[in-house]
Amino acid sequence: MKEVRLRFAPSPTGYLHIGGLRTALYNYLYAKHNKGKFILRIEDTDQTRFVEGAIENLIDSLHWAGIKYDEGVFVEDGKIVEKGEYGPYIQSKRLDIYKKYVDELIEKGHAYYCFCSKERLDAVREEQKIKGLIPKYDGLCRNISLEEARERISKGEEYVVRLKLPPNYDIKFHDLVRGDIVINTNDIDDQVLLKSDGFPTYHLAVVVDDHLMEISHIVRGEEWLPSTPKHVYLYEAFGWEKPIYVHLPTVLNKDRKKLSKRHGDVSVEDFRDKGYLPEALVNYLALVGWSPEDNQEIFTMDELIEKFSFERVSKTGGIFDKDKLNWVNGHYIRNSSVQRITDLAIPYLKEAGLIDDKFAEERYSWLELLVKTVQESLDTVAQIPEKVDFIFKENIDIVEEDALEVLKGEQVPAVLRAIKEELKNVEVLDEEYAKGLMKLVQKATGVKGKNLFMPARVALTGSTHGPEFVNILVLLGKENIIKRIEHVEEKYL
To answer: How high is the pLDDT of residue 345?
Structure first.
């Protein structure tokens, strides 16, 4: 049986889009489910759109997401390298290969030289639009003899090479998601295969590369569906076996529109910067367009590999729901080690100006307690600074109505005084002492329950609810607790 080989073949035109990550993920899951190979190829034939650093970003994003490929383009010691038996894996290094296959198509009569200027092509298309026709090339150069074409080329005339489609011919292929598809050549353009700059178009390069790299399944976004008949015809023209096609539904926003920059975050880097964990993003993305047979929602990568199939991929666009992603991410944050979340939190705390490098180094265990205190309540790691900001403030201003109401209790001055008195007897406020502190205050004042704890919480945090109170006592420490109580006594009592 033929080896299952799938590829992800992005263009280095910017950062990896969330839809691109899902395409890579589905390729990876299917390849691994079938004990096959997953390849990263770079499609850079459109040199005008090349973005410096985009290849490195693509590789970094896939690596971060835990999507491991077997061959293709890698970064090692800061350099781009290629590994595998089917290289080069960067299209701009394969120009001689494409030239050979273009010449073969011309010789066989499946392609022709076209000398039409951009101005003429624009005029033809404009006229067709006015007449209500499908705008496409009118075939003016189709019947120029090879001899004449070569003579014109030798005189320096600019040209492109076009695919020569037969008239009124049904091109048929099967798509694993969309079923059988038939398109008539009368509805398709004679596609440009080789541009005037000597670079192939996507349409030629993708077919040649997929054949030579022995790709068994082509899995890509549905925006490529209109181009697929041309690709299928090229396989026929070369006499090659065509691969199996899978066109994935688009990732949509809540308004059922395609995700775009206008609607906020769309690149993998955006989500990474916002404090999403890679396994959460991958878990959630897998479910945007695919559903398991049961209602399972939390998956490890191994479970996704085991359960994934294209039969369960939807025909309609998958809705990207940020709230659902936050829920999944919150699950993974709660189930991560405190150390891991602390390490991820430190850059956000530094950026917020709450700590510096020295603080992070010298008070790491304090930071772990800080993170542990709010870990349960997080949707993203980036939320940590706002959740813990109150710990770093010198004094707390109390603005919440219910918090101000608590301070009106007649027992409040006695409770706050007793806390200060008890703290005078202690050198270090550790967890063990913090656990017993309020019992000592209760003994000294006779106040218990809500009447005891609420004034203490409000005085120290400014709120009637919040994280574990014992942790707050340890995090603030003796001096800060006394300072905060004195501030409340002065300003609110």
So the answer is: 98
Query: 1.10.260.40, 1.10.10.350, 3.40.640.10, 2.60.40.1120: which CATH number matches 401-492?
Result: 1.10.10.350
Question: CB within 8 A of 110, min separation 6: which ones?
Answer: 163, 164, 237
Amino acid type, 266: V
Best CA proximity match to 288, nearest among 374, 273, 271, 397:
271
Indicate the CATH number of 5-91+251-319 among 3.40.50.620, 2.60.200.40, 3.40.50.300, 3.10.310.20: 3.40.50.620
DSSP for 32-61 reads: HHTT-EEEE-B----GGG--TTHHHHHHHH
**Regions of the chain with pLDDT less than 50:** none
Tokens 């959740």 belong to 387
Separation of alpha carbons 9 and 493, rounded Å:
67
Token digits for 279? 């396994």
Please give the pLDDT value at position 301. 98
160-163 and 111-114: which strand pairing? antiparallel
Please give the DSSP secondary-structure letter assigned to residue 2.
Answer: P
Backbone angles phi, psi at 281, to 5 degrees: -65, -45
CATH architecture of the domain 336-389 equals Orthogonal Bundle (1.10)
| 160-163 sheet: strands from edge to edge | 111-114, 160-163, 192-194
Which bin fits 239, alpha (ψ -120 to 50), beta or left (φ > 0)? Answer: left
Q: Which residues contact 153 (CB under 8 A, 6 or more apart)?
A: 113, 159
Residue with tokens 């690149």: 267
Query: Could you tell me the strand order of the sheet in which 179-184 lies?
Result: 79-83, 71-76, 37-40, 5-8, 217-221, 244-248, 170-175, 179-184
Fold topology of 94-248: Rossmann fold (3.40.50)
Q: Which residues are catalytic?
A: 261
Q: What is the pLDDT of residue 371?
A: 98
